[in-house]
Amino acid sequence: MLQVKGIAKAFLVGLMALFMVSSHVYAEDKPLAGKNLVVFVTSDDVNKAGMGMTIGMAASAQAGANVTIVVGAGATQYILKNGKNSYFKPMDKPIQGVLKDAISSGANVYLCGMFAKAQGLKDSDLISGAKVVEGADIFAKVYAKDARIISF
User: What would the pLDDT profile of 131-142 be if each residue is shown by its tens digit?
Assistant: First the structure.
């Protein structure tokens, strides 16, 4: 009987340690929470564009960052409803699927307003959840406190 109590006590101590460790891991589960990331995606190369979109999506979904993905120039073809939906092998899905995942994760996905105007594009031309924005909206994200900017 004494041996069973010792095993039960060891089990409870182990269980408590597991809860303590898991709560610590959970607290650090979103290491970029509150941080701002702006990803400019302009490349028409599916691998370069896909990499930028994937980094933005992961920073939002997995790390908790406030992410804005700004698409323009050659990459515009990937944000259009009827655009080029090239297959992005690293994520094993079409590139529009990566953008949709980014939107689902909470990332803002924007089309550069200047480029949209030059091409005669509007929100209704874009995949669901993406929108055309003007420079002031983009600059607000770029100049947000502690914003980090990357481009592809």
Answer: 999 999 999 999
